[in-house]
Structures are given as C-alpha cells and as structure tokens.
C-alpha cells in the first residue's frame, strides 16, 4: 500500500483540502509502516515466517478490495471533474442512508 497514498493524493482531493488530506494520508502511511516493522518479527517468531507473511497478504487483499470498491477511477479526468465526482457521491448515497437527516441531535 506504500505508493497508493502518493498516487491517490495527487488526484482525488478537492483543492481546498488537498494539503490537509495529503498530510493525513502520509501520517497513516507512516504509522502503518511502523506497525508492520514493530510487529512482524514478533509475529514471525510466534507463528513462523509463512503464516506471518499470509497475515500481510490478507491485509493487502482487504486493502486492494477497499481501493477497488471505494476509490473512483480518475484516469483522464481533470481536477474539476474529480471534484464533481466527490460532490455527487454524497448526494447519490443520501437516498440510501438508513438514518434520515435530522436537525436535532439524538439523545
């Protein structure tokens, strides 16, 4: 997943939030790297190298599925068109939401 945030950051965030979102993605990327680096040897020692790598394969497969399902294709689109995709997506999902918009907070 290392190169994904850098590729996605350059295309999907609205211009107003690009810096903030890029920083958040970089932070998540480096924290993920830290977790893997700190836990891999312990997991490999406890379960063996094969199962330890299979855990990482499982994480990578879940991450791939997440990206394939939730990240829109932006090839050949301008920044304005990508912003429009992100603006239309919440409106499209609003009709599917189980909880209607409410003006008063739930108790």
Automatic annotation (TrEMBL):
Record GO cellular component, one term: membrane
UniProtKB keywords: Membrane, Transmembrane, Transmembrane helix, Transport
Transmembrane segments: 49-71
Membrane topology summary: Multi-pass membrane protein
One protein family per Pfam: Sugar_tr
Signal peptide: none
Family the UniProt entry places it in: Belongs to the major facilitator superfamily. Phosphate:H(+) symporter (TC 2.A.1.9) family.
Official protein name in the record: Integrin alpha chain-like protein (Alpha-int1)
Species of provenance: Salvia divinorum
Lineage of origin: Eukaryota, Viridiplantae, Streptophyta, Embryophyta, Tracheophyta
């Amino acid at each position: 997943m290392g190169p994904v945030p850098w590729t996605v950051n350059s295309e999907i965030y609205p211009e107003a939030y690009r810096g903030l979102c890029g920083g958040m993605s970089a932070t998540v990327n480096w924290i993920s790297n830290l977790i893997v680096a700190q836990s891999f040897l312990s997991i490999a020692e406890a379960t063996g190298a094969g199962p330890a790598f299979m855990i990482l394969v499982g994480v990578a497969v879940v991450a791939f599925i997440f990206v394939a399902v939730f990240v829109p294709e932006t090839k050949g689109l301008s920044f304005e068109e990508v912003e429009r995709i992100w603006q239309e997506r919440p409106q499209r999902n609003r009709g599917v939401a189980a909880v209607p918009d409410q003006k008063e907070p739930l108790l």
